[in-house]
Specification:
178 residues; 81% helix
């Protein structure tokens, strides 16, 4: 591997690192309802998002592997289109995760507008994913699967049930005579 190859590799990584937060902000501006629904899903039902994303990956990976192994160029093109669709949905969910992280940064005292907080959440998400070993092999797969599930819920308009309103003990005891 030559020095030019190393520079090209890091140039591609740097350009992807600059482009990802922009993509997530763009998704939030283009599809604000989908991103907001994904944000709510990830905030209130992260486990269900993970399991739906895992189901989606388990169902879609075997056909994609078969398509890539067929000698026909058309089948490989269909396989690449399938990967494109999966990554598009995952990026929609990742915009929801970045919005959630930005909202939590704002709740922690960051004074920023919602788009600025989303951008900061996207950068924080990206920096966490590039940490060697833990970010690559633990966090990144969890993020991809969970955001894929959140995007699935958001695109299907499946929202979590409203949180039950807490009943005070005084009201509960006052309703029934002792």
């Amino acid at each position: 591997m030559s020095l030019g190859d190393v520079f090209a590799f890091f140039g591609v990584l740097l350009s992807l690192g600059l482009a990802l937060p922009g993509l997530l902000v763009a998704w939030s501006l283009i599809c604000p309802g989908v991103v907001a629904r994904a944000q709510v899903r990830l905030a209130r039902t992260p486990g269900r998002c993970f399991w739906l994303g895992g189901l989606w990956v388990a169902v879609s990976i075997p056909p994609l592997v078969i398509l890539f192994n067929l000698p026909s160029g058309v089948s490989q093109l269909i396989g690449w289109l399938g990967v494109f669709v999966l990554l598009t949905f995952a990026s929609l969910g990742a915009a929801g995760l970045a919005a959630l992280m930005g909202a939590r940064l704002r709740d922690a005292g960051l004074t920023a507008s919602p788009p600025s907080a989303l951008l900061r959440g996207a950068v924080a998400l990206e920096l966490a994913a590039v940490v060697p070993v833990i970010g690559w092999f633990v966090l990144l797969p969890l993020i991809i699967v969970s955001t894929l599930g959140a995007a699935g819920f958001a695109l299907l308009h499946w929202m979590p049930r409203p949180a039950p309103t807490p009943v005070s003990t005084e009201a509960a005891h006052g309703a029934y005579p002792a």
